[in-house]
Write a structure and sequence with these properties.
EC 5.1.3.13; dTDP-4-dehydrorhamnose 3,5-epimerase; RmlC_Cupin_sf; mainly beta; six-stranded antiparallel beta sheet; five-stranded antiparallel beta sheet; about 5% helix
């Protein structure tokens, strides 16, 4: 397993070993022992799975607040996405910065998203099966988000943003500046 640090503080790309032959491939997508040996020690207690049937589906940018904040371990089982995260931890060296990563069924990459990051993705192919582990249960009362179209973030989505297929809720999220007054995330305290 290869673990790569990213430009965003505490975010990691994980590339598990993949063994392929004429039949296909085998990979051990998660092993507590291997992850702990690599310094990634979270108690993942919930798995989530979404299906997006067409390219251009944009989900996010989401997070859970307070005691319900979540670390996520993300992977794509079928298809491909541009996965985008934004550091919203006040005081972080990378506060307000975003990065995007291609996750696909072909590259087998996984993304470790710590608590205090807003997360979203846009599908690049049809029939994307998107899975992620969480170290905390979903809590509707703690659900939060920021706008995927925040002009200050200037995320370089690979689609025309006005053509994104999104939920009404996601289309109405506040900008990071608008969220700032209620932002509970503080670097080093999560």
């Amino acid at each position: 397993m290869k673990v790569t640090e990213t430009n965003l503080t505490d975010v990691k790309i994980i590339e598990p070993a993949v063994f392929g032959d004429h039949r296909g491939f085998f990979t051990e997508s998660y092993s507590v022992e291997d992850f702990k040996a690599a310094g990634i020690d979270f108690d993942f207690i919930q798995d989530n799975h979404s299906l997006s049937t067409q390219p251009g589906v944009l989900r996010g940018l989401h997070f859970q607040k307070g005691e319900s904040a979540q670390t996520k371990l993300i992977r794509v089982v079928t298809g491909a996405v541009l996965d985008v995260i934004v550091d919203i931890r006040k005081g972080s060296p990378t506060y307000g910065k975003w990065e995007g990563y291609i996750l696909s069924e072909h590259n087998h990459r996984q993304l470790l998203v710590p608590r205090g990051f807003a997360h979203g993705f846009v599908t690049l192919t049809p029939n994307v099966n998107f899975m992620y582990k969480c170290d905390n249960y979903y809590d509707a009362e703690a659900d939060g988000g920021i706008s995927f179209a925040d002009p200050d973030l200037a995320i370089d989505w690979p689609i025309a943003i006005e053509k994104a297929i999104t939920s009404e809720k996601d289309a109405k999220q506040p900008t990071l500046k608008e969220f700032e007054a209620e932002n509970p995330f503080v670097y080093g305290e999560i």
